[in-house]
Write a structure and sequence with these properties.
single chain; alpha+beta; 5 strands; 4 helices; 3-stranded antiparallel beta sheet
């Protein structure tokens, strides 16, 4: 068999296979559609029934509020009568009800009551306010500073702990410190005790009230500070 004969035989075989495929396409297409339809039908037929939940809002009936019973409003009070207008009259006034004039002749000094006795109050008992025109002034600042350094508690100083103690000073007419007491604590008893210890070293000028030296209470802060 020559080459031409082999070529024709091969072309005839290919043509036959192509024709067979074209003829079977319709069968495969409609068969596939029918199978898909049957599968879907079975799925919907065998699927369990579903039902949506009731989401309606149940609201209780609103109870109507009964209006209050009719209230009898009392009548308004009677109007207050206007006061009577004063009337000037020329009726005579009796002299026995007239208050006599107050004069020194009718009230001599010897008949007047004596003035109340002056009660002396010991203001040194506790801190009290005293009227003064000039407050005391510290005179020995350098000595007080040296005492602060000397009496600073070593444990607190080395630890860098400081504080301020406010002290009440009772100063007499000469400017001398007579009594002291803690007004406000520093928060450390050792510092408060040191402040009271050196407070008696303070020297003041006297307080002046109306050009007269007077005793007085003053409060000063005694500060212990590390440098």
């Amino acid at each position: 068999m020559n080459d031409q004969t082999q070529h024709d035989a091969s072309a005839e075989i290919n043509a036959t296979a192509n024709d067979d495929f074209k003829r079977s396409f319709s069968t495969w297409f409609w068969g596939s559609i029918s199978a898909a339809t049957a599968v879907h039908f079975l799925v919907f037929a065998l699927m369990p029934a579903m039902q949506a939940d009731d989401v309606a809002i149940n609201q209780a009936a609103i109870e109507m509020v009964q209006p209050p019973e009719e209230i009898d409003i009392p009548p308004p009070p009677e109007a207050i009568a206007r006061p009577a207008m004063p009337v000037i009259t020329d009726a005579p006034i009796e002299e026995d009800i007239t208050i006599a004039d107050v004069t020194f002749d009718a009230n001599p000094v010897e008949n007047l009551p004596p003035p109340p006795d002056e009660v002396e109050t010991d203001i040194s008992a506790a801190p009290v306010w005293t009227d003064v025109d000039i407050l005391p002034a510290l005179k020995n600042t350098d000595e007080v500073q040296r005492a602060l350094t000397r009496e600073y508690p070593p444990l607190l100083r080395d630890a860098g702990i400081g504080g301020t103690t406010v002290v009440w000073f009772f100063i007499d007419e000469t400017g001398k410190v007579v009594k002291t007491q803690v007004h406000t604590s520093s928060g450390h008893k050792a510092l408060d005790d040191a402040a009271i210890k050196i407070s008696h070293l303070y020297e003041f000028s006297p307080a002046i009230n109306r050009d007269k030296p007077v005793p007085v209470w003053v409060s000063l802060g005694i500060a212990f500070e590390t440098r």
